Amino acid sequence: MKSASLVRKTIIIIMLLSAGVFVIMQAVYADSDEILQKLKETKKCQGCDLSGLDLSGVSLFGVDLTDANLSGANLSGADLTYVTFRNADMSKADLSGANLRNADLSGANLRSANLSDANLKNAKVYGAYLTDANLSGAVWTDGYKCLSGSSGDCLK
Q: What is 44-156's CATH number?
């Protein structure tokens, strides 16, 4: 009898914890939708925290993200043309297949970022930290394609 009561209490606790996780996840998605809407309306989010967000495939054309925290964010396949990332933390971000044409990455931290197959033609990369960044198949600032295995530097 006592074990049946214990099992019921355990099930109730698990259900309450599961409901709490669901509520938290809904809040996270609402926040990222709200942030994305703000980015599209104002075209700027200087110094904002976008770390870990899934922004894959979105268009942020011309947005100013100076000093923003995008570490661990998923920006794969995103249109980041003319985006300003000056001094932004983009370490470990996934930028694979992203369009970064004419983007300003001056002073950005791109350590261990995935830039494979990204388009960086005419992007400003002066002072950008590219240590361990995956540049395999990326189109470099001069329009040449980086060789497979390019890491931290575009091998042509």
A: 2.160.20.80
